[in-house]
Specification:
66% helix, 11 helices, two-stranded parallel sheet, alpha+beta, 4-stranded antiparallel beta sheet
Length: 447
C-alpha cells in the first residue's frame, strides 16, 4: 500500500511539473488585429463617440415636434387682488352727512381674488425658424457620419500599430533563431580551434577568441529574450489583453511583392482616404453653422394653443385658446450680424485648411510609396547578402582547417554572416510594415 502511495505521489508531481502554470495563447496577426479592434481603449472611445453623436442626432429630431408644457399654480393673498368701489368718496361723504351714518369706502367696494388655482397645457409648433431646425438636424447627421469616419481612421492606426509590435516580436524571434544557428557554428569552430591547438599548429589564442565570441553571443541572446518578453506584454496591453500570457504565430510570410503591383494613382488614393472625407465634412459643418447663424437674424413663426382649468372665484372654469405668434429679432440686425460674419470667416478658413491638408496627404502618399520602394530593394539586397555571407563563411572555414587563414578572419566572416541574416529579418519586417502603411494610406485595407 505504501509503495502504491509513493508511485501515485510521484505521478502527480511529474504531471504538475509538466503542465504550465498558465496556458499561453498563440495568436496570429489577424487575431491580434481583431482583438485590438474590440479591446483597445482608443477603439472603445471611438465607438462611444458614435453613440454620443447618435444621441445628439435623436435630440435634434425632437425639435421638429411640438413643444408641450404643463403648468399648475395656487395662490393665497393677504389682501384682495381686485378692489372696485362703485361709489366715490364724495358720494359717501354726502350720504353720511345727510343720513347721519358712518359708512366708509370699503363698505361700497367689491373685493375679489384672495386665492386661486389654475392648471393648464400649452402646445407650440414652430412653422418657420429661418432654417435653424433643419440645419441643426443636418449638422447632427453630419456629426454621426464624421464619428464613423474617425472610427475608421482609428482602426487604420490600430492596424499599423498592431503590425508594428507583431513584426518587431517576429523580427526578434528570427534574430534568436539566427543566433541559435550561429551558436552551433561557433561550437563547431570552437572544436576545430581546440583540435588545431592540441595538434600544436596554433596557440590557445584562437580558442580563447572563439570562447569570447560565444560569451558575447550568449549575452546577446539574453537581451533578445528580454526584448521579446517586453514586446509581448506591450502587444497584450495594446490589444486589450493585459492580463493574458500571449505569444505570436512565428510563421513568417516572406513573399515580397514589387511596389509597382501595389501602385495606385495619387489623386485616386487621395479621394479614397478617410482623412479627405473628414476634411469635406469639416467644410460642410462650417457651412451649416453659417446658415444657423443667419437664421438667428430671421423672423420665426409658430402656432399653438392652451387649455386651462382654473378656479379664482366660486366655480371651476375650463377654457381653450389658440394663437399664432410671429417674432422678429430687430436687434439681431446689429448684434447677431457679427456672429454671422464670424462664421463666414470660419467657413473660408475651413476651405483653406482643407486645401492645405489635401496637399499634405498627397505628399504623405508619395512618401509612403517611396518608403515601400526603398524597403523592397533593401529586402532584396539583404536576401542576396545572405548567400554571399554563407559562401564566404564556408570558404574561410575550409581555409582555416587547412591552415590558410587565421581565426580572426574566420570570426569576421562569421560576424558578417550573422549581420547579413539579422539585416534580412529587419529589412523584411520593415518591408511588410511599409506595405501595410501604403495600402492604408491609399484607402485600401487589403489587396
Amino acid at each position: 500500500m505504501k509503495t502504491k502511495h509513493n508511485i501515485l505521489t510521484a505521478a502527480v508531481l511529474l504531471l504538475s511539473m509538466a503542465m504550465p502554470a498558465t496556458a499561453q495563447r498563440i495568436m496570429t496577426l489577424a487575431e491580434c488585429v481583431a482583438a485590438a479592434r474590440s479591446g483597445n481603449t482608443k477603439a472603445k472611445d471611438a465607438q462611444n463617440d458614435i453613440l454620443m453623436a447618435k444621441e445628439q442626432q435623436k435630440l435634434a429630431r425632437t425639435k421638429y415636434f411640438p413643444m408641450l408644457n404643463a403648468s399648475a399654480f395656487h395662490f393665497r393673498s393677504s389682501g384682495p387682488l381686485i378692489k372696485y368701489s362703485y361709489l366715490g368718496q364724495g358720494d359717501i361723504d354726502a350720504m353720511n352727512e345727510g343720513l347721519e351714518t358712518n359708512f366708509t369706502l370699503d363698505d361700497f367696494s367689491l373685493k375679489l381674488l384672495r386665492r386661486g388655482t389654475n392648471a393648464g397645457l400649452t402646445l407650440i409648433e414652430p412653422l418657420y425658424t429661418g432654417g435653424r431646425i433643419h440645419n441643426y438636424n443636418k449638422l447632427a447627421d453630419l456629426q454621426v457620419n464624421a464619428r464613423r469616419v474617425q472610427q475608421d481612421i482609428v482602426d487604420d492606426q490600430l492596424v499599423m500599430d498592431t503590425e508594428f509590435l507583431y513584426y518587431k516580436i517576429l523580427e526578434l524571434y528570427e534574430t534568436d533563431n539566427t543566433l541559435k544557428v550561429i551558436e552551433k557554428e561557433l561550437e563547431s569552430i570552437h572544436q576545430d580551434a581546440v583540435n588545431v591547438w592540441e595538434n600544436g599548429i596554433v596557440n590557445k589564442n584562437d580558442v580563447l577568441s572563439v570562447e569570447l565570441v560565444q560569451d558575447q553571443l550568449s549575452a546577446l541572446r539574453i537581451k533578445v529574450d528580454n526584448g521579446c518578453k517586453l514586446l509581448r506584454r506591450a502587444l497584450a496591453k495594446h490589444i486589450g489583453m493585459p492580463n493574458e500570457d500571449i505569444d505570436i504565430d512565428t510563421t513568417l510570410n516572406k513573399d515580397i511583392i514589387a511596389p509597382e503591383q501595389l501602385l495606385i494613382d495619387t489623386q485616386t488614393a487621395l479621394e479614397n482616404r478617410n482623412e479627405t472625407r473628414l476634411l469635406d465634412m469639416w467644410v460642410e459643418k462650417s457651412v451649416l453653422e453659417r446658415k444657423i447663424a443667419k437664421a438667428d437674424m430671421l423672423p420665426t413663426l409658430a402656432i399653438g394653443g392652451t387649455a386651462s382649468h382654473s378656479k379664482f372665484l366660486k366655480d371651476w372654469n375650463s377654457r381653450v385658446m389658440g394663437f399664432i405668434a410671429v417674432q422678429m429679432p430687430l436687434s439681431a440686425f446689429w448684434s447677431e450680424r457679427h456672429a454671422y460674419n464670424h462664421k463666414k470667416l470660419e467657413e473660408q478658413k475651413a476651405l483653406d485648411f482643407r486645401q492645405d491638408k489635401r496637399e499634405m496627404i498627397s505628399l504623405q502618399i508619395q512618401d509612403a510609396y517611396d518608403n515601400l520602394t526603398s524597403a523592397y530593394h533593401q529586402a532584396l539586397i539583404a536576401k542576396k547578402s545572405i548567400s554571399r555571407a554563407e559562401e564566404n563563411m564556408r570558404i574561410n572555414r575550409e581555409h582555416y582547417r587547412e591552415g590558410l587563414t587565421t581565426m580572426t578572419v574566420l570570426l569576421d566572416a562569421q560576424r558578417q554572416q550573422q549581420q547579413a541574416l539579422t539585416q534580412y529579418h529587419t529589412a523584411l519586417s520593415e518591408y511588410l510594415q511599409a506595405k501595410t502603411r501604403y495600402l492604408i494610406l491609399t484607402g485600401r485595407s487589403e489587396l
